Amino acid sequence: MNVPEYALTRRPRMKNIRMRIGDGGAILVSAPTRTPQRTIDEFVASRTDWIEKARGRREALPQPLEPGPEAERLRREVRAAAEPLIAYWAERMGVPVPDLSVRLMRTRWGSCNKAKLRVSLAVELGRRDPELLEYVVVHELTHLIHPNHGPGFYSTMSTYLPDWKEKRRALNRPAVPAG
Ligand SMILES: [Zn+2]
């Protein structure tokens, strides 16, 4: 049995084994006090696919930012940088210019509400390379043409930003902390 390394916490009141992915991709398992070690090992070993997916999802999260003056400063910066990009790309892609909101998002870099013609961008983008902001802008504007991530979506992305895959990879690599 191939058991990935994990950190175990015993909890007397628990009924089932639970697993989550922590900082740096660590596997954190909690289990009832009496569950045999071997059962926990089997549980973890049988869920390697889940672990890989959960690690991938976690990597894709923006670096969390707390509300406060720093977040406000970044919010203004992202708005100032995004507005001309949106105007440029909307015209180039032949889509209407959407309303923009810049907010703390935590779980993603941007979102698009086609019905309300509104694009939201994560404040956290202010900490990343401006090229990555452009990638997210083009991604969200593409949703005004293709609401879902189907083949049409990716072919439109490739038309306008041929290196979008590289940018997506760069975006989902954790940012090097400033300072
Ligand atoms: Zn999308």
CATH hierarchy: architecture of the largest domain: 2-Layer Sandwich
Computed structural class: alpha/beta
**Widest β-sheet, arrangement of strands:** 1-3-2
Radius of gyration: 20 Å
Give the name of the CATH superfamily of the largest domain. Answer: Metalloproteases ("zincins"), catalytic domain
Largest sheet: 3 strands, mixed
In N-to-C order, the SSE pattern is EEEHHHEEEHHH
CATH fold-level topology of the largest domain: Zincin-like
Mean pLDDT: 89
Q: How many distinct helices?
A: 6
Distance between the termini: 43 Å
The first-level CATH class of the largest domain is given as Alpha Beta
Count of separate structural domains:
2
Which hetero compounds are present in the coordinates?
zinc ion
Residues in β-strands, percent: 15-25%
Q: Would you report the number of β strands?
A: 6
Helix percentage range: 40-55%
Q: Which spans of ≥5 residues are poorly predicted at pLDDT below 50?
A: none
Shape: elongated
